[in-house]
Amino acid sequence: MAIEKMVMMNVVGLIEDVNDVSREVVLMENVDIVNALNEINESHFTLSVTQENVDELVGMSLIKPLHEDNNYDNVFRKIKALEDIYEEDFIVNRKHITKEIDFKKSAENIDALYNVLMNLYKEIIASEDKLRKIDEFYRNFIYVKDLDIKLETLNELFFFTYTFGILSRENIKKLKKNYENITAIVLHTGSSSTGEVYLIVSPKELELETNRILRSLSFHKIELPEEFVSTPIEIINKLEIKRKEIEKELIIYKKKFSELKKAYRKEVEECYSILKLQEKIKEVKKQMVSSNIFFYFSGWTPENDKEKIRKSLDKFDNLIIVFRKEDDINDGFEPPTKLKNKKLFKPFEHLVKMYGVPSYSELDPTVFLGF
Asked: What is the pTM of this model?
């Protein structure tokens, strides 16, 4: 049981290599990024004064936050929308991001995939919304299906206003006791599971008083859209026919949508992995600074990984890498804590982290907690 020994890694490279170096850092998954500007201001970012390092040292006096030219926010929003469409959380597949990749092309692919899938998805949502509205209208008209009168006749009333609604059985008794005070004609038109359905016809000049009385009786209005004409039973028949048409349409949409999702699943995952890598690269670059020629980067990494990191970054020309132990850095600057345990006790690290990660100088309690 132990806490991994960490070293500070300071890197200086040519600005044209910044994206490729950042990608390597992300793929390593063993570097805890810190803000390079803070490191330089606190004099933790140091280079040896040699003839080879003169340009880099001079450049440190001209540093500024690294400017990110590309903005992928809109693409990330579309990626999130595709996750919702697939109803799953995609994971980054390393096989898609360790090969040569083209971020711009992946962004364009996501745009194309998003448009194809989202357009059909919107058709499905629109059809489902139509069905919900039809069901709502159907429920309303079914209550007045026995009313043998065309609704346009009621809509054409000039001096009168009307409304349909439901009264509970308890409030029906109150209504009957106060018939002489009612400023409207009250006609029973049907029954529902919650009460009795009534048609209320009132002179327009007494509409406010009628509504006051109805509110006191907890009258639940049934909304009947004005665009519907004919008798309620005829409207119900039309709604049933329309519902069957939309249901058939929805089956076709959903089948096609399922086929497209399956066909594009691998491509969406690949684009997701590549663009998530780009998002991580963007986060790394936010912590960097640059001059006109060089970029400057800092991070903590396990001491045992030094050679592996040098080997990964060896492909870049004119890259300076300096490792410093915590003892070489000013007091008050503590490395992050990285727990290091054998495979048997590795799962118990999660329990330790639930209580709080020990500081860099403290004992790792994972084994004790494991027992």
From this structure: 0.59
